[in-house]
Amino acid sequence: MRKMVTEENSLHKPAFRGVLQSDPNEDEYSFRLSHTSETSHTNYDRPPPRLSSGNNSPLSTSPTWDPYLDPSNWDQSHQTSPLSRSPWTSHVENISTNYSYTGLMGSLVREEGHIYSLAASGDLLYTGSDSKNIRVWKNHKEFSGFKSNSGLVKAIIIAGERIFTGHQDGKIRIWKVSGKDPSVYKRIGTLPTLTAYIKSSIKPSNYIETRRNRNAVWIKHFDAISCLSISEDQKLLYSASWDKTIKVWRASDSKCLESINAHDDAVNSIVVGFNGLLFSGSADGTVKIWRKESQGKGTKHFFSQTLLKQECAVTALAVDPSSSFIYCGSSDGLVYFWQIDKLLSHGGVLRGHKLATLCLAAAGNLIFSGSADNNICVWRRDGEDHICLSVLRGHSGPVKCLAVEEDQEQTGDDQQFIVYSGSLDKSVKIWRVLSQLVPNQAEVGMSPPQNFPSACSFASQGSCRVGQRRK
């Protein structure tokens, strides 16, 4: 069994839009690759951020913001069939039989939309895009897929036999593979459930004020879901949204247990670790810690402390439970880290990107950071120090999501990992990375590394503010 570590994070969104409506009759289904092709007329359903000089523009004062992050600057003419096969294209030649190298293995290319989310489990890879399709790849070949007719796929998480997907329309959908045919996936639920939504909508006390005096039922996100996380015992599912809240769901019966008013702006990332601690990062520039406590027959989350407060938006979080480190990616391209077993003391800053850090993943003693500069930095942790082993280059667009798992076919004593990276260039790239790589080793798809072991202050920097806090 492969060890699986994933991190799926979405572009931060510091401003609100209107309340999203729920369509209980939406058509959601699994498709087989052998079916007759049909033309996709999918529209890009995420209103792009606007570069503006006005005071309310979330991007107007960010010198590090990459114009490629604005989807309006990307080719959206993905009219190819959503059911046609995607090619597996190898970019590595003359590979030795022991596969002991670090570099690009190949690419999964589908001209149907930007890749927003990834999840890996064993020999299966799940990819989500703005086409609303979730593609399933097996051993690097397209195997199956399933889709929803509303809401681009911003987050994917695997919990046992169930796959949870978070969407732009504020819904969480639950899928399960058919017991008769492993290539068929069925939707077995939606969060919140229609029954729970109707029951909650009857009581006026279940409504909360959203924007411009509009009310919504508290159990439903009224803006895009940015990320998902699951508790270590897989009993609780957490969803975070651009509506500034985190919702807690009981996985056994899909009941919404709690809604946390977590931040002053969009929540971009959440992660659970270290005996139930919940970490949240937001466009308001803060990282907060929430502790879970028993309350009667249930549990409730209480604010513990603010780990980081800065002007730049927090865009990604990752935990490394094996070594008690937590990592935070920022819109200024930096990666901060803290040590849990040292009372959350600030350990330092990793400086490897020129533009915003968009996603993070941790596996073994390695940390991976994907950025709007199209690159992936590979960091190795040696004690409390971090060394940049390599920079993986190959994407032509911002790296939006990462999934990492241990290589099952590794040989020798060196630990190897397979890294999947999804990008706004509409491709997923597959990399092999050796954990014991010599820092100055030159390999395919890599650039010279640097050593950044020292701790730095994380004082606010006014020049890199990304979002205005809402009052």
Automatic annotation (TrEMBL):
PROSITE patterns reported in the protein's UniProt record: WD_REPEATS_2, WD_REPEATS_REGION
Record field: compositional bias (Polar residues): 33-42, 52-64, 73-89
Pfam families from the UniProt entry: WD40
UniProt keyword annotation of Cell membrane present: no
Source superkingdom: Eukaryota
Disordered as annotated region, ranges: 1-89
Keyword Ribonucleoprotein: no
First and last residue of the signal peptide: none
Keywords from the UniProt entry: Repeat, WD repeat
Gene3D superfamilies: YVTN repeat-like/Quinoprotein amine dehydrogenase (2.130.10.10)
Chain positions of WD repeats: 218-259, 260-290, 307-341, 392-433
Biased composition range(s): Basic and acidic residues: 1-11
Protein's UniProt name: Uncharacterized protein
Species whose genome carries this gene: Datura stramonium
